[in-house]
Amino acid sequence: MSAAAQFHYRFPLRASGHRPGAHPGTSVGAGDAFASHGRLFDHPDPRRLDLRASVRAARSEWLVRLHLQRSAVPVQAVVDVSASMRFGTRRTKLQVAADFVDALGYSAFRAGDPLGMLAFDRGEREDLFMPARSGRGVGNVYASMLRECVGDGDDAGGATIAGLQRAASRLAGRQALVFLVSDFHWPLAGMPLVLDLLVHACVVPIVVWDSAETTPPAGGPLLAVRDAESAAQRTLWLRHSVRERWREAVSRRRAELAQALTARGIRPFYVQNVFDPEAMSRYFLEAGA
After folding, report:
1. pLDDT tens digits for 19-40?
2. Which domains does the chain have, with CATH numbers?
3. Residues of 61-70 as b/e, b for ≥16 C-beta within 10 angstroms?
4. What is the pTM of this model?
5. pLDDT of residue 203
6. With b meaning 16 or more CB within 10 Å and e meaning fewer, what string describes 14-44?
């Protein structure tokens, strides 16, 4: 994927920040969305004088038109860097996640939004925390950090949701566009608490899967497998019934994710093997239709 890959996203709410940007905002300033009238004495800008409104004013005073300016929105990438994200056939899921963060950085730069990054495995990864900042190469820097990061040496087990909760607590109560990038191979029981912490944000789950996870191999009756999180090994006899249960498990996981997210009005975006920026743009276009 090109380093200059870009997609177009939308923030579904009015941004409350004062920094000018590309999204509809709530701050009065230079914009084209009419908000109300104000006294010329309070807002001394004769260019926005409204003669008709001034004539109709009950107190016979000069009125100017006030508009809402378009504002910037903080964008945050919350990335799963646990052991299962290091699995992949041609490229690891973490490398695909890095491609997404690279494209997100360039897209945020074009939209005038600052981009920050948080990461988690069993706990929050302080070494990968980056505060929101603006710049053309910010996404490339964050992506390089993800591609070069290593495990903490003790990230086995199914405690990833606890790490996500700690990372999400940094964003609690803040308005932001949050991209949650993970394979979601952890219990979803803790997801409501995470979404409660991010209740003021717009959350976009990016589900990164590899084709080797979703489709059983075509040839060979025996398959040696290893759990990416716990490192447990076993051998499977790939009977027809096992292949069917494999496919059913993938469908069931999709349904569980949909059930956990759609109750909050959130729709996941699936990435398999490679990130497609055009598909990401269509995701936001369909969400706003």
Report:
1. 777 777 666 777 677 777 888 8
2. 20-71 (no CATH), 75-287 (3.40.50.410)
3. eebbbbbbbb
4. 0.83
5. 96
6. bbebebebbbbbebeeebeeeeebbebeeee
